[in-house]
Amino acid sequence: MSKYSASYLTEKLSKALEATHVDVHDDSDGCGAKFSALIVSPKFEGLPLLQRHRLVNSTLQEELTTIHAFSQKTLTPAQWEEQKSKVAQ
Predict the structure, then answer these.
(1) What residues have CB less than 8 Å from 21, skipping those under 6 apart?
(2) Using CA atoms, how far apart are residues 36 and 46, in angstroms rounded to an integer?
(3) Residues 6-82, CATH architecture
(4) What is the residue-wise DSSP string for 10-50?
């Protein structure tokens, strides 16, 4: 069982990446072994997807040694607004 929770990861990512929106889900029924995350940050501006994921992974370097699986979706604030407007239509 991992010692990390969705709320812990949300807080860490929010602070470290100056994120405007972070949504982390524990996909492992509460044991903390598998997480998925949506992260919206201005720090992603101008970065290709691989560099965005590396930035997130470096932020969670210690945690990822015990987390079994971590999937992430990384968006800039503009991409996030565009995605929200498409869903609203």
Answers:
(1) 38, 39, 40, 80
(2) 23
(3) 2-Layer Sandwich (3.30)
(4) HHHHHHHTT-SEEEEEE-STTSSSEEEEEEE-GGGTT--HH
pTM of the model: 0.91
Which two structure tokens, joined as six digits, stand for 21?
């929106």
SS3 category, 85:
helix
Chain Cα centroid distance, residue 36:
7
CB atoms within 10 A of CB 66: 12
Q: What is the CA radius of gyration of the chain?
A: 13
Give residue limits of the domains in the chain.
6-82
- Tens digits of per-residue pLDDT, 3-58? 899 999 999 999 999 999 999 999 997 777 899 999 999 999 999 999 999 999 99
